[in-house]
Design brief:
mainly alpha
């Protein structure tokens, strides 16, 4: 039995390895550690979660770069969730946010909206269509 390989993105080989197998091409022929098991992984593989993860990472990296232009000490896009919640907890008693603080919140909000849209996408085209509405 030969492997019926179809390209499904970089995550496919990671999925095969995670299943405890390997797949390689030698002289134009696909070889594997277990033809039946590897073929089952190939047939059942859904590249969308891997594709979404890449898009989400790109959004977060872009958002973090924008935020670090204002607040260099922020080291992770996801830590802004805590910072935002802390701000919201004191906002009613605090003075208005500075323009830098408001910009950070606006960038975070735009990034989270884009991540939510990517997470809700059901096709690669929908993932590709997500473009964060970063503040000017």
């Amino acid at each position: 039995m030969a492997i019926n390989y179809s390209e499904k993105g970089a995550g496919l080989h990671a999925a095969i390895a995670a299943a405890g197998h390997w797949l390689s091409q030698v002289d134009g022929v696909w070889r594997s550690s277990n033809v039946v098991a590897v073929q089952a992984v190939i047939d059942g593989y859904n590249e969308l979660p891997y594709y979404k993860a890449g898009k989400i990472a790109a959004i977060k990296n872009d958002g973090l770069a924008r935020i670090q232009a204002v607040f260099p000490a922020i080291g992770d896009f996801d830590e802004l969730s805590l910072v935002r919640e802390m701000y919201l907890s004191v906002a009613p008693a605090a003075r208005s946010p500075t323009s830098s603080w408001q910009r950070m919140i606006d960038i975070y909000t735009a990034g989270r909206a884009a991540v939510t849209a990517v997470s809700a996408a059901t096709t690669k085209a929908q993932v590709d269509a997500v473009v964060p509405s970063w503040p000017a």
